[in-house]
Specification:
- The protein is α/β, with parallel strands linked by helices.
- It has one domain (7-161): Rossmann fold.
- The chain has 4 helices and 7 strands; from the N terminus they run βαββαβαββαβ.
- Strands 1, 2, 3, 4, 5, 6 and 7 form a 7-stranded parallel beta sheet that branches.
- α1 (23-39) links the parallel β1 (7-11) and β2.
- α3 (108-121) packs parallel to α4.
- The longest helix is centred in the first third of the chain and has 17 residues, at 23-39.
- The N and C termini lie close together (9 Å).
Length: 162
Amino acid sequence: MPKLAQTLIVIDMQKALQYSYNFSGLIQSINNRISQYRQANLPIIFIQHNDQDVVRGSELWQLSGKLDKQKEDIVVEKFHPNAFYQTNLNKVLMQNGVRTIELCGAQTEYCCNATIVMAHGLGYKILMEHDMTTTFDNDYMIAEDTISFFENIWNNSFVTFQ
C-alpha cells in the first residue's frame, strides 16, 4: 500500500468535470485512498471550485455524489486554479500541523498544477500516485498525454510519486 501523507486533498471533483478523462475510474481510485485515510484517522480536504462557469449552488458546482465525502471532511472553496490563493487552505493545514500532503483530482494542467506548484513553494512535501488526476482532451494533446506530461514535470521536482 502506498504511504499516506498527513492529509489527502481532493481537488475539484465536481459535476462540471464529470465528462473528463476516466472521471468515474478516478472517483473509484480516490475513494480507495479516502478509505485508507479514514482508517488511519487522517483528515480529508475537498477543494471546490467556484467561478462564472461553475457557479456556487448550481448543479455543476456540486461535488460528485459518488465521492465518499463525509460531514467531518473539510471543504475549501476557491475562485482561482491555485487552491491556496485567497483561501484558508494554508491556515487549515498549519493549524493541523500538516507538512506532508497528498493531492488528487481535476484538472491536471490547471487547478492540480497550480496547487502543486504553490504547495511546493510553501514548503509542503507532496505525495501522489500516478494517474490520480484527470483532464479533457485539448487542441494539443489527448488527456492521457497531458496527464503524463505534467506528471513528468512534477516528478522529483515538486512531487514524490509512489
